[in-house]
Specification:
Rossmann fold; homodimer; DNA-binding; seven-stranded mixed beta sheet; globular; Arc Repressor Mutant, subunit A
Amino acid sequence: MKSDKISEAVVRRLPVYLRYLQELYKREVTTVSSQELGLKLDLNPAQIRKDLAYFGDFGRKGIGYDVAYLIDKIRQILKIDQVINVALVGAGNLGQALSNYNRYVKDNMKIVAVFDSYDKKIGTMINTLTVQPMEELQNTVKERNIRIGIITVPDFEAQRVADCMVEAGIEAILNFAPIIIKAPPHIRIHTADFTTDLLSLAYYLESEEGKEETEDDKS
Amino acid sequence: MKSDKISEAVVRRLPVYLRYLQELYKREVTTVSSQELGLKLDLNPAQIRKDLAYFGDFGRKGIGYDVAYLIDKIRQILKIDQVINVALVGAGNLGQALSNYNRYVKDNMKIVAVFDSYDKKIGTMINTLTVQPMEELQNTVKERNIRIGIITVPDFEAQRVADCMVEAGIEAILNFAPIIIKAPPHIRIHTADFTTDLLSLAYYLESEEGKEETEDDKS
DNA sequence: TAGATTGTTAATCGATTAACAATC
DNA sequence: TAGATTGTTAATCGATTAACAATC
């Protein structure tokens, strides 16, 4: 196959493949079939083959995919074969959690600066990074070649922060605030709104059959 | 329209509608049209009307939707018109961030218990809650009528925790570990894997034109 | 009334899955 | 060779969007 336009659904599955392939690699598994992948990742094998075939002929008929080779290829496709520098804005609990979470360093995503707009936070340390005032965003983005911004501020500040990021030349934003932020079309925005995930989960609960809340006593 | 089977895509948009409607309510806006909603939420107005029409005739032709009424209805549909008790397993940074994040209390989702399997964590306080050992999960779930579980443990523990949750009678799981966890089909699982969001973001970056990494000096 | 906006059908668009020839 | 598995086409399935009669 090789190119067409790649749909977002496909792109979002690539990191999922990558993650599991890396686990296989660690376990010294050298080859994997679309069927095995599908089983493990709850995906249709045909879909996996099709996804990968958009980008090239990575497999071998009768054999499957070479794990190490496919890891390399997916990393290239995702453009994480080089280190990508990331700025985090919002040094609250979630921001701290994210910057402590160093798993993505391995994936060549590196948080290299943390910002906040509250005086109290500025100057404090998060891991090895000093929290900087928002005024320094623009310069730091340029100096440190920061390309992605993560927003972990309260929702009422999220749009303002996004605007600053865009102005500073950031190319893509991961937004944790439960709000739809607006940006020019060349800026890619992903929303990581777990409150949506949580609330929609409730829909799938079995209807109560005479259950009541724990706390307030209706009797 | 009224019922058929409701697709997951529809259900996932309901919390998004709800959130913005609640904001409108706070601002004392009483009525809103699908067009206004669409503009604000980056969605097609026809899609919004269709989504809502699955559940009933909530709007008025020529007028739009009554904000307060629609909030009520969506809360009913999502089954968050009653308090839903939630257990959090994993008292690390992310777990702390989530339990501090009290926004969903307003949405009738309430974290009523926190668990961890590390001795060091057990007995410490997270907000008003004492971290309990995993052994108490089963009993606490029953006693406190906990229906949803949130997993914020490292990936290698996630499946084990999920198994415990299922055994304890939890009905739905929000999983933050970057791994596909398996459970019986009647258990609903949502994955809130922000590393996927972050990595897939890189795909959309403009290709480098002679840029290099910040840190290591190639010259 | 005239203008606005819903609910719903039909048309379009896109994504997933099945099937199979090619080939290791 | 026989068995396995890819890459890809065709078929299916599902979701989004346009259009418009109904009606406030």
